[in-house]
Amino acid sequence: MKKLIQEAIKAREKSYCPYSHFAVGAALETKEGKIYGGCNIENASFTPTNCAERTAFFKAVSEGENAFRRIAIVGGKREGNLEKTAPCGVCLQVMQEFCDPEEFEIILATDMDQYERLHLRDLLPYGFELEKGN
Ligand code: THU
Q1: Is residue 51 pLDDT above 80, yes or no?
Q2: Is the pTM of the predicted complex or chain greater than 0.90?
Q3: Active-site choice (29, 53, 63, 116)
Q4: In the predicted model, what is the mean pLDDT of residues 79-96?
């Protein structure tokens, strides 16, 4: 757990947040134990902004990963202390696409040994699903 939070803190250092100055880092662990980091990437046009969680997911999925165990998230003002940062609805819906809501863990950390552990189901009780066709 410490290692995963450490990776999220490391990913946060790369945050591109010149507008909100709110830097977020995420570390996504696959079922095989590989870790993908991600940071938020903002845009002058606002809408194209990508959250740290989605950056981590898209990096992993684009490398062929499709089985995930947990994600650690850290966020806070660029020069301030970490604040408990929960994923936005869009990121939760992306998690729902690739993860079992009863099993996938979301770790909201403010320090290496200070964190809250939730399941995706806790934060997104009624995620949207469509049957996958061929
Ligand atoms: N943000 C994330 O990256 N993840 C979250 O869980 C919440 C919000 C980013 C988006 C934006 O760059 C900044 O935080 C302020 O909203």
Answers
A1: yes
A2: yes
A3: 53
A4: 97
Catalytic status, residue 131? no
The yes-or-no verdict on residue 134 having pLDDT over 80 is: no
Structural contact between residues 82 and 45, judged by C-beta atoms closer than 8 angstroms: no
- Once rounded to an integer, what is the mean pLDDT over residues 82-89? 98
* Contact present, 10 and 112 (Cβ < 8 Å): no
Ligand 1 atom 9, closest CA: 51
Question: Coil, strand or helix: which one is 56?
Answer: helix
Cα-Cα-Cα-Cα dihedral sign, residues 35, 69, 56, 98: positive
* Sheet arrangement for strand 22-30: 35-39, 22-30, 68-77, 105-111, 114-119
Residues contacting ligand 1 via CB (< 6 Å)? 17, 20, 22, 24, 40, 42, 49, 51-53, 73, 75, 85, 87-88
Measured in angstroms, how far is the CA atom of residue 132 from the centroid of ligand 1?
29
Cα distances (Å, whole numbers) of residue 5 to 19, 37, 74: 25, 10, 8
Structure-token pair, residue 134: 């061929």
- Position of tokens 């997104």? 124
Residue 36 predicted with pLDDT over 90: yes
